[in-house]
Amino acid sequence: MVNRIWCETVIPILWKNPWHYKLNYCNKNYLFIIISLYLSDDVKEFLSRQGIQLSSMSHKSLSFDYLSFCKSINVNIIENIISIGSSLSYNQFLLQQEFYNIMMKTCPELKYLDIISIKHQIFYFPEAKVHLDSLCELKCDTSIDPSYFFGLARICQKIQNLIIINTDPRENDGIVKLIEFQKNLKFFEWKDNFDEDNFVEDPYEEIFFALAKKTDNLNHLILYFQFIEYYEHNYLKNVLPKFSKLKTLKIDNLLFSCEEILKTSVYRDLEIFNTDYISIETIISMIENSGGHLKEVLLRYYCYEGEDDFNEDSLILIRTIYEKCPLVEYLSLVFSTSDDHFAEFEKLLKTCQNLRSLLLIISNIYQVETYNKKLENGEKLLNILIRSAPINLREIRFFDNFKFSLKNLEEFLEKWKGRPALSILTSDPVYRREDYVKLINKYKEVGVINDFSEKNIYF
């Protein structure tokens, strides 16, 4: 539609992974047509005899060898595309088999494979060994029969990124074997996604024992647990310290019992740490034991409301951040509104010049502040941001324990002019008021504000 040179440039890019676009693939006939055109005449005739509707364009030739650029297979999307040809289960099974067969023959090397909901043991196709040998990313789920993973483990031993959705909380020996066979596993993500009633046995132990043998290469560990607290999981506490080369550590639903292990674990290469409900004491220890490379410290803190040491611990936390991780870009921070805390916070802003996004959690555990006091604290914060906010700061998130008067907010936005547009997210519904909305829209129009909204302010 543009010109030949543009087309020759963009087609290899689009077809490298044609499944990851935000499309309703069931309504996109052209993908179905293009793959159908690769089928041999004998196969087309066989499928037609089964009542499968192939495109009337099947006699035309292709302008490009599209599948020769493809390095990815997404089983779920291919299933959606195949429904265009027939609504009958058996016919769809036949189409899937022929589509996978042609892709195994035509795609020169497959790098990315998403086999969630797979029904075909694709590693049995004649060309599978040659084309799957280069696989570097696999996404799968635990409902898949172990035999599929046994077959993949025999062929695919160079997987670098492994993403597992835990939909069936039973031990899967095939996944364990697949992990054991990998020679260069760098990224591992595990995400629980099952009903609590189905939790009948522990699916984690053998998985983590297999992972513990991959510590020489593993750089990124992402774990989203649902019901892990049902078991003591001593093995998780045993293996976490072994991942000494991690650059990313994300744990959702962190076990309290793991905190003591994290306090003493040393991750010198850590760049991203993200977890929910962690104590200030633990994160201080982790930052001190890191190598100064942290870029994301995104946390939900607990154990500060009512804690006698909160004021001192939160001061130490701020100091530790600007002393030990000056490269931080994304940060969630809890502190009191004392003058000392504001002073240390300003030092943090001046030191951490790469800071892009900031979540502020304020806690005053010794007193209930009046509305006017909250406005005063809000004014202090805005003045500090104007004086010391790094030029890279693009986003601020805060709870309703910070209050900004209409006058102070306008003064702040006026002084922010000339800097990159700012997104402000809050949990406070006061900004729905007509006078606030009018002010916010005014500064949106002149490019001072990119977004100002009330939503989930956690990262």
TrEMBL record:
UniProt cross-references to InterPro entries, sorted A to Z: LRR_dom_sf
Gene3D superfamilies: Ribonuclease Inhibitor
Name this protein carries in UniProt: F-box domain-containing protein
